[in-house]
């Protein structure tokens, strides 16, 4: 019995050390990204827009550096996956209301591209299952991934790229 205690304690200590290392890395990444301005969380009506489509159910996967699907942005809570409700304003603004995280509004003029992809940090599903919104926050180009609950909503929002 006693000869099992030491290996178990070593495994517990190793596990705690691994968790501490992950937490340290997450905080360090967040500090290195603090140069990014905080994104707006204004409602569509505050921006003078009506709702063109939505709200629809989705999963907010995360936000990454544009064309770098594994470089997650963790500053300002943008790296936290959450269930969400997504609305598209009549001016091309995306309103993402996330459960348990700050809401995110991507102003229409900041959207540079709307496309589909197989995934990004946090979720890889293959095919074109993620709706990816490429947008500018300050001087940084970002990609935000959404997994919409219904394919019809995905296709409708994707068709808006001609208007973006």
What's the arrangement of strands in the largest beta sheet? Answer: 4-3-2-1-9-8-5
Give the helix/strand class: alpha+beta
Largest sheet: 7 strands, antiparallel
Distance between the termini: 67 Å
Count the beta strands: 9
Helices and strands, in order, run as HEEEEEEEEEH
Please tell me about this protein's structure.
The longest helix has 31 residues, at 2-32. The protein has helices at 2-32, 151-159, and strands spanning 51-65, 82-89, 94-98, 104-106, 111-117, 119-120, 123-124, 130-137, 140-148. Strand 6 and strand 7 (123-124) form a beta hairpin. It has a seven-stranded antiparallel β-sheet, with helices on one face. The chain has a two-stranded antiparallel sheet with strand order 6-7. It is elongated, with a radius of gyration of 19 Å. The protein has 164 residues and is of the alpha+beta class. It has two helices and nine strands, in the order αβββββββββα. It is 24% helix and 36% strand. Residues 53-157 form the PH domain. This is PH domain-containing protein.
In short:
By secondary structure, this protein is of the alpha+beta class.
List the helices and strands and how they pair.
Blueprint (H helix, E strand, L loop, with lengths): L1 H31 L18 E15 L16 E8 L4 E5 L5 E3 L4 E7 L1 E2 L2 E2 L5 E8 L2 E9 L2 H9 L5
Antiparallel strand pairs: 1-2, 1-9, 2-3, 3-4, 5-8, 6-7, 8-9
